[in-house]
Design goal:
There is one protein chain. The chain is α+β, with helices and mostly antiparallel strands and 485 residues long. It folds into 4 domains: 58 residues, N-terminal domain of TfIIb; 56 residues, no CATH class; 178 residues, Nucleotidyltransferase, domain 5 (2-Layer Sandwich); 145 residues, no CATH class. The chain contains 18 helices and 15 strands. The chain has a 7-stranded mixed β-sheet with strand order 7-8-11-10-9-12-13, sandwiched between helices. Strands 1-2-3-4-5-6 form a 6-stranded antiparallel β-sheet. Strands 14-15 form a two-stranded antiparallel sheet. A hairpin with an 8-residue loop joins strand 14 and strand 15. Helix 1 packs antiparallel against helix 2 and helix 10 packs across helix 18. The protein is globular and about 90 Å long.
Length: 485
């Protein structure tokens, strides 16, 4: 048995031709699981005592032992660690590492060019120390530039160390130009990637001539409507200074009221603000959890079907949404009364409050509009037109960018460094397209197949082939399994 450090600071355990990663530490033992638990769905595991000795296999693997794979993994970890800690060049680190390996292990090593790129990314960069307060944070010199062979101005705006709500925006002149040319924008905030003392990294992504690009990156100290308005107005002002004028027609957002209100305040009512269907479905499921109905959702098919029909209202034509909620109220299960009341009050009809002070007078009620009315989240037309129903392409970008950053709450210097890499990647996509290179399309996946089915169902409803009950039942069958993820 051998234990060694991973390049991310964790620990790996080598035993009997298998590689394990530390999973959990308990009071009396430590549990390790197979390093292929994700890729191979392997449930192999073992435990050690707290001194990390005396291995005890607790679950068998679903794949054979592979001693060469384990040796390669250990060697790669050692190379990455050396790249971080030493000034040696990647070519030297690679050559010295493989020199000590047997031929059978060398044959399994990553290709040299690929490994050298990895090592270059691992090398330490003498980043400045993170200031103790935002008042001490000053971004200047090379940190205001995009880096690379021809560095350009990258820091667009910093409201300064004395601002009550610090806001730092990064965008190149090229990305501002792309922003002005796109009529479909995607907003998203990431809290885990925010540096210490900032609340979120907020990005504005755009769709432009078949490409998805990130036009602006903002480090925000708060998530208030004022903060979002300042961010948007600053972007527009900086663009106007460059004689760039924006006219977005669709802006995709999550269900954050402050963001939605800031868009309306800055762009007016003409912009079509679209909430993300995925987040609406997640909101429904969170309410299921809050009401203590998770077990029923998983075990009672009628209840889970009803939840799917509730979410399925988003696919009805906008003018039929109220008919849909009224139909669901007629067939609602007793266990779902609180759920449909929440959904109707938040997303469809709104709520009611009593008005008037007459003690013995007639009961008078006033309707309070829903927090997120149907036009915000209805996706009937976009489904028929093969448009975006979700903000998931931004969520996918978040996952990819998180892998690039490799840690939660990185220093402000590291996040600037990684943002510059992302800008370079986007610039590459643009230049390739300008030369006629087409971005490789991913293979047709389960989401595209679902899109085809949902589009067919929407068309069948429009054509009168399905009534509301049949339509919502069919929609539920297609989407209900996604809402519990």
């Amino acid at each position: 048995m051998e234990i060694f450090k991973s390049n991310k600071g964790g620990e790996k355990l080598r035993f009997s031709g298998y590689l394990y990663v530390l999973h959990t530490e308990r009071r009396e033992f430590i549990r390790w699981r197979c390093s292929m638990s994700s890729s191979f769905k392997c449930r192999g595991s073992l435990t050690t005592d707290l001194n990390k000795t005396v291995p005890n296999v607790t679950s068998q693997h679903n794949h054979p032992a592979d001693e060469e794979y384990v040796k390669v993994a250990k060697t790669v970890c050692e190379m990455k660690q050396r790249a971080k800690e030493s000034g040696s060049k990647p070519v030297q680190i690679f050559a010295e590492a493989v020199q000590t390996l047997e031929n059978t292990t060398r044959a399994r090593m990553p290709l040299e060019d690929s490994m050298k790129r990895t090592l270059r990314n691992q090398k330490s960069k003498n980043l400045p120390s993170m200031p103790a307060t935002l008042q001490e944070l000053v971004i200047e010199g090379d940190w205001t530039m995009s880096g690379g062979l021809n560095p350009k101005r990258f820091l667009l705006h910093d409201n300064g160390p004395n601002a009550e709500e610090r806001m730092i925006i990064f965008a190149t002149d090229s990305s501002l130009r792309f922003l002005s040319q796109s009529n479909e924008w995607y907003f998203d905030g990431n809290f885990s990637l925010a540096p210490p003392m900032f609340l979120q990294l907020y990005v504005i992504r755009i769709r432009l001539r078949g490409l998805l690009l990130t036009a602006a990156f903002s480090l925000l100290q708060k998530k208030s409507q004022t903060m979002y308005e300042n961010m948007l107005r600053t972007l527009l002002q900086k663009c106007e200074e460059r004689q760039l004028y924006h006219d977005p027609t669709i802006i995709h957002v999550d269900f954050e009221k402050a963001v939605i209100q800031s868009i309306t305040a800055v762009f007016g009512e003409e912009v079509n603000v679209k909430g993300c269907f995925y987040h609406l479905a997640q909101s429904t499921y969170r309410k299921v959890q809050e009401l203590g109905l998770v077990v029923m959702y998983r075990e009672d098919k009628n209840f889970s079907k009803f939840c799917g029909m509730l979410d399925g209202l988003v696919f009805l034509p906008l003018e039929d949404v109220h008919r849909g909620i009224n139909f669901l109220r007629k067939i609602v299960l007793a266990a779902a009364e609180d759920l449909i009341t929440y959904f109707d009050g938040t997303y469809v009809s709104g709520t009611y409050r009593r008005i008037g002070n007459e003690q013995n007078g007639p009961l008078r009620m006033r309707n309070i509009a829903p927090m997120f009315p149907p036009p915000l989240w209805n996706v009937h037309d976009s489904t028929l037109e093969d448009g975006d129903r979700t903000n998931n392409q931004t969520e996918g970008w978040n996952n990819r960018f998180s892998n690039l950053v490799e840690e939660n709450h990185p220093s402000v210097w590291k996040i600037i460094e990684k943002i510059c890499l992302e800008v370079a990647a986007d610039s590459t996509k643009v230049e390739q397209r300008n030369l006629g290179v087409q971005q490789k399309k991913k293979k047709r996946n389960v989401f595209e197949l679902m899109q085809t089915r949902l589009k067919n169902l929407c068309q069948q409803y429009v054509d009168g082939e399905k009534n509301i009950e049949e339509f919502l039942s069919a929609i539920s069958h297609n989407i209900r399994f996604r809402t519990q993820e």
